[in-house]
Design a protein that fits this description.
The chain has 9 helices and 2 strands. It has 225 residues and is mainly alpha-helical. Strands 1-2 form a two-stranded antiparallel ribbon.
Length: 225
């Protein structure tokens, strides 16, 4: 009975927005951690390869984390697309009754293109995995431990103009997506009070800028040095 009620709630716009919000925030957390990991590249090959090796050494725990992230990406994409389709159907049939959400809607270009930037990033994610996670395996030795030389692969990859500037464009789209998505997630979770809605939106904008700069810095540094 409980499972039936859960399925029913996921078929509603509110239920789907809730799941999209939770998974979106989880993905945001992953993005921030991934960005911080990328920054270790600037501390040299040993630091970057040790960071990468530490993750790989987690073994089954890493696989579990990856499965959770995969589920988050799948559910986030599905729920976001479903909500978008529901909203469009409601508008076309003129049954939608739009009311204020207790504060400004913050409708911007980033908010109206969320579905497109999201799909493009999913496509990029698959390409990114094939390039780095499942790409060529070089090895190196750090303090007597043989490990994958991911530093060499990253350096080789970002020496090419095509991948480098394509990566930069996608990271700009990520920031564009995050700019509205962060605030939207909290709104879906009920944090839309006028006393702190603006602060949440501002935090989302600052976070989007920080993440974008953090990600584009690495490829541009490698390419131009």
């Amino acid at each position: 009975m409980a499972s039936k009620s859960l399925v029913s709630s996921l078929n509603t716009t509110i239920g789907r927005k809730f799941v999209a919000a939770i998974t979106g925030l989880a993905i945001t957390g992953f993005v921030i951690v991934h960005m911080l990991g990328n920054i270790t590249y600037f501390f040299g090959s040993d630091a970057f390869n040790t960071y990468s090796h530490t993750l790989i050494s987690l073994g089954p725990a890493l696989y579990a984390i990856e499965l959770v992230l995969l589920a988050a990406f799948v559910f986030h994409a599905y729920m976001a697309i479903a909500v978008t389709m529901q909203n469009r159907a409601a508008r076309s049939s003129r049954y939608a009754n739009v009311r204020g959400a207790g504060g400004p809607s913050y409708k911007t270009t980033s908010s109206t293109t969320m579905i497109y930037t999201g799909v493009l990033m999913l496509i990029f994610l698959v390409m990114h995995l094939f390039t780095f996670k499942w790409g060529p395996v070089y090895t190196t030795t750090v303090d007597g431990t043989t490990m994958r030389d991911l530093y060499k692969l990253v350096t080789e990859t970002f020496q090419g103009a095509g991948y480098t500037f394509g990566y930069v464009v996608v990271m700009l789209l990520l920031g564009w997506h995050l700019r509205h998505g962060f605030w939207s997630a909290f709104q879906s979770l009920g944090a839309n009070h006028p006393n702190y809605s603006k602060q949440i939106y501002t935090t989302g904008v600052l976070l989007a800028i920080l993440v974008t700069v953090g990600f584009v810095g690495l490829p541009l540094y490698v390419f131009f040095t």
